[in-house]
Structure formats: structure tokens, C-alpha cells
Design a protein that fits this description.
The protein has 220 residues and is mainly alpha-helical. The protein is 70% helix and 0% strand.
Length: 220
């Protein structure tokens, strides 16, 4: 994870740090369309002390390490149960709900047109990625590693970037998961579920990139 600083673009922080997107929503900081603005600039525009916003973001980053088991094998089990299975379960109901909202509210100016397509692409990408981890990478790790393990890890890091890009498409078509005034229960439930799914996925990626993978990569 990139070290947090006031000079980082808010879009990069929202994409990289689990919980940051929801924090920015609460503070009124636009990270979707205004994502190239630095944290310092965004805080100033909203009358916020950048030090306070930075402290809240650092607390989110610290929480990531507190919530994951420290030992490697329990950490792998945690990833499988808390993230792999949860992603599958969430997408199973989010996709048909997105299809319903698009169909019923397609003529609304805030309708998330293209959301179902974006979620299907993300589901297919994630399923392929998680299967590779479950069938190849994690078994290698359970056996203590392998001389060639750096190659599948590098591939998984690259696929994490692809998933982040697909998640960005979900943010764009939902206008930063912003509900219109008077949104119905289905639309509200959809965006609530997508916020949780998005943060779960970012946490999943961060745990692997920052905690699990470095344990098996050669020191530089």
C-alpha cells in the first residue's frame, strides 16, 4: 500500500485503501469524478483539516493489520473464508439486483446503466483469479513456498490491478455509489451491498499484497 500523504490524489487513496471511499463519502470528498485532486486540496475545498482526514485514513490502514491473523496458514484460511466465499455470495445476489434496478429505473438520470455488465465482468475476473489462488498459489504457500513462487505471485499482483480497474468501472457507472433522492428500497440495498463488497475486495487485495505475498517474495 502506498504511504499515505496529503499529496496523494484522493482517487488513488479510495482505490487502494479499504474504507477510504466510504470515509470520503461521509466527508463530502469527491473521489470519482474529482479523483485527481490531492488529499490536501480536497480537504481545503470541503473546509476540513487535512491532518484530521489523514489521521482517519491512517486508522483505517492500521485496522487492516489488526483484523487479519498473523500466522501464515490461519491468514490463508481467513482469506478463503472471509473474502473468497464472501465475494461469491455477495455477487450472487448483487448481480440480479443490479439488473432489476437498471430495468426498472433505466430512464432515471441517475440510473446505473452498465452496472450489470460491469459486475459480470468483475465476477468472471475474480472467479478466475480466486481459483488460481486456491488451486495453485495457496497450496504452494501451505507447503512452505517454492523456488518459482515469485512468478504466480507477480501474476496475482497484476490481476489485483485488473480487479481494481473493474471496480473503478462500478464506481463510475453508479456515480460514486451516490443514491438519488427518493431512491427505492432495491436501489438503496444495491448500493449498500456494493459499498460493503467494494471495501471487502480492497481489504482482500491489500492483505495479500501487503501482508501475505511479501512473506514468500525474495528480499531485494
Amino acid at each position: 500500500m502506498t504511504e499515505l500523504s496529503p499529496t496523494l490524489p484522493v482517487g488513488d487513496i479510495a482505490a487502494d485503501l479499504p474504507g477510504a471511499a466510504e470515509l470520503f463519502r461521509r466527508l463530502g470528498i469527491s473521489f470519482c469524478c474529482g479523483g485527481n485532486v490531492t488529499l490536501a486540496e480536497a480537504a481545503a475545498r470541503n473546509g476540513l483539516a487535512v491532518a484530521d482526514v489523514l489521521a482517519a485514513l491512517q486508522e483505517l490502514a492500521a485496522g487492516l493489520r489488526r483484523d487479519a491473523p498473523n500466522e501464515t496458514l490461519p491468514l490463508i484460511d481467513h482469506i478463503l473464508s472471509r473474502y473468497h466465499e464472501t465475494h461469491r455470495t455477495d455477487l450472487h445476489w448483487l448481480i440480479p439486483l443490479a439488473q432489476k434496478v437498471e430495468t426498472v429505473h433505466g430512464d432515471h438520470e441517475a440510473a446505473p446503466l452498465g452496472l450489470t455488465e460491469a459486475l459480470l465482468a468483475l465476477r468472471d475476473d475474480l472467479e478466475s483469479h480466486m481459483m488460481k489462488e486456491e488451486q495453485v498459489l495457496f497450496p504452494m504457500m501451505r507447503q512452505g513456498g517454492h523456488a518459482m513462487i515469485a512468478h504466480p505471485i507477480a501474476a496475482m499482483r497484476h490481476e489485483h490491478d485488473s480487479a481494481a480497474a473493474l471496480l473503478g468501472a462500478v464506481e463510475r457507472v453508479t456515480h460514486g455509489l451516490t443514491l438519488p433522492e427518493g431512491a427505492c428500497g432495491s436501489w438503496t440495498a444495491l448500493y449498500t451491498g456494493l459499498r460493503k463488497f467494494s471495501d471487502d475486495l480492497r481489504t482482500h487485495v491489500a492483505i495479500e499484497n501487503d501482508i501475505l505475498f511479501p512473506r514468500f517474495e525474495p528480499a531485494h
